[in-house]
Amino acid sequence: GQQVMQIPQYQHVQEGEDFTTYCNSSTTLSNIQWYKQRPGGHPVFLIQLVKSGEVKKQKRLTFQFGEAKKNSSLHITATQTTDVGTYFCAGGYQKVTFGTGTKLQVIP
Amino acid sequence: SAVISQKPSRDICQRGTSLTIQCQVDSQVTMMFWYRQQPGQSLTLIATANQGSEATYESGFVIDKFPISRPNLTFSTLTVSNMSPEDSSIYLCSVEGLFTGAGQETQYFGPGTRLLVL
Q1: Which of these, A29, B80, B85, B100, could form a disulfide with A91 (CB 3.0-4.6 Å)?
Q2: Which residues, at least 6 apart from A90, have a Cβ–Cβ distance to it below 8 Å?
Q3: pLDDT tens string A5-50
Q4: Do B99 and A48 count as a contact with CB atoms less than 8 A apart?
Q5: 3-state secondary structure B23-70
Q6: Considering only CB atoms, which chain A residues are within 8 Å of B99?
Q7: Over the stretch B71-89, which tens digit does the pLDDT of each residue have?
Q8: Which residues of A touch B104 (CB under 8 A)?
Q9: Alpha carbon A87 to chain centroid distance?
Q10: Min Cα separation B44/chain A (Å)
Q11: What is the pLDDT of residue B1?
Q12: Can you tell me the distance from the alpha carbon of B109 to that of A104, in angstroms, rounded to the nearest whole number?
């Protein structure tokens, strides 16, 4: 079946440093979604990308969908303590397959 | 976005017992799903809850262990039957909602039910 891997699994950064998580799928994705899960919380939808090579920005967050629609990345510029959490990519409609997640810790 | 509530929010259960988790949505939705998130892990889809018919289960999940009901377009239940410590997880329901403007779809999650089986 489809597998969606994310690297790194964990990332500790000093507040103000940048952070990037990478998402790779074993198969071509119709879309890619990104979710953030705060400690003790539930996943919250951040954004969806559907076009090959698409780039979207939300304030300090930049999302990219690969040309082959098999990979994606999330880049956070100048991290803040509020960015702490686990970031999941997910692909597909209806039967969504979630990536393995990247846990971000920001050190004040 | 849809407002989703789950009950109970958490529970501690004895092995061999069953727990029914409720998911309520504030608007009618077509697609409802149940996920499991084991400690420190990603989300795994258990099943799609179909209104008026039997749920569609993913590989590795069976109806006898995880019976699901979906009596209408705003409500669903998931039962975790004959529980063992391996069932200790967060159980989340989710719904699909229209992504404004583009007609695409995304998922909104309930707050989750944290289950500990002793």
Answers
A1: A29
A2: A4, A32, A33, A34, A35, A96, A97, A98, A99, B107
A3: 999 999 999 999 999 999 999 999 988 999 999 999 999 989 999 9
A4: yes
A5: EEECCCCCCEEEEEECCCCCEEEEEEECCCCCCEECCCCCCCCCCEEE
A6: 48
A7: 999 999 999 999 999 999 9
A8: 31, 48, 50
A9: 5
A10: 7
A11: 64
A12: 21
Measured distance CA(A51)–CA(A67) in Å, rounded? 8
Token pair belonging to B42: 């990603």
Q: Which of B106, B108, B113 to mutate to probe the A interface, most A CBs <10 Å?
A: B106
| B46 contacts B97 by C-beta, under 8 angstroms | no
CA distance B17 to chain A (A): 25
Lowest mean pLDDT among A8-12, B101-105, B108-112: B101-105
Residue B117 DSSP SS3: strand
| pLDDT tens readout for residues A50-78 | 999 999 999 999 999 999 999 999 999 99
Query: B1 with B105: CB under 8 angstroms?
Result: no
Q: For tokens 């979207």, what's the residue?
A: A56
- CB spacing of B105 vs A50 below 8 angstroms: no
